[in-house]
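## Example pair
The file below holds two records. Each record gives the amino-acid sequence first, followed by its structure token line.
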Amino acid sequence: MAGIAAERVHSAITTAWTAEEQRTYIERLNAREAIHVAVESEIVGLQTLEKGTFVSMMHVAQIGTFLTPAARGRGIGRQLFEHTKSFAIANHYAKIFIQVRASNIHAQGYYMSLGFTECGLLRRHVCIDGVFDDGLLMELPLQ
């Protein structure tokens, strides 16, 4: 997934994680958190679901979606979300949040197509190469 970070466009993550950072992240997930992975001949996408960091309530989850350029626009993100959403419901989450860069209109369209709605804005939340971008918060109630 290093190529996604290297794009410096779609995500606030701009440097690829090392194998050790990935291992540590996975080991720290609890039973109510997950990573769903799309694999073709290699990993082409993943979606994380974690206890929300923007709010401290146990019934709110936060997701992150990462797709390689070749995987975008092919329904892979939608397939990942179906698994993530089912997992969230089975683990008694009432709502899912996502933070999207305000300049990332493609991600906003993707999440809106899944039923997410805008619920907040984080001003100047991301700075990449000296350029600030707002963070758009979107939510999807599950009940």
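Second record, same layout:
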Amino acid sequence: MINKSEKTFSVVYSHFLTPAEQMFLLNEREFSGIIEFEGGHEDVERRICRVCTNEYNKDDGLPIVLYSVKATDKNAVISHRDVLGALMGLGIKREMTGDIIAKNNQAQFFCHQSVSEFVKMNLTKIGRYSVELGESEFSEMAELPKKPVNINVSSMRLDSIAGESFGISRTKAAELIKKGMVFVNWQVCLDTSREIKAGDKISLQGKGKILVSEISGTSKKGRLFVNILKYV
């Protein structure tokens, strides 16, 4: 991608990358200042890599489309798995689709522009339900549903916050952090003692994702009451 950007004097975009893949690229110092990541919305995990080797490179724009789908049956229930399955059934590779949000009989998903017209023409059913599909502006992306939860921790260390938030022991949380299974603001964090602050997003593979809202108080024994939002 870097070679292509240099040869064509243009900005080059990749397919969608997982947080782990993004982190792998960010750790390569030689790419510093050349790459960045875009996903269509600040709250998404799957993003594409933007390569720009010169500030004068021609940029054709972010090749991402946001589609909204709605089942014709108002009593239908569409899940994330249903949407992904329908796209895979069309032969669309996972790296060509971004984040998917599904609720009740509606869903939204990002897809790469290179397959957007094919999806638009062929995605007529999700699961057993017929659906209507239309393109949406990025600003129309539905807010990811979150559930407010209050936790009580001894400190704002990552292992402490992750343990309480995901219902595991602090020791287990520390093990998973060291294995590279915990992400802070979409980046792998191997530091169990990292100080977490309000606004940080933490995700644990297989357990979900949270947003740290605020420290709401302190107990007489010095423990911290922390408000978090758990993505559901």
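Notes on the second record: The chain has three domains: 2-51, 64-140, 146-231. Residues 80-89 form the longest helix (10 residues).
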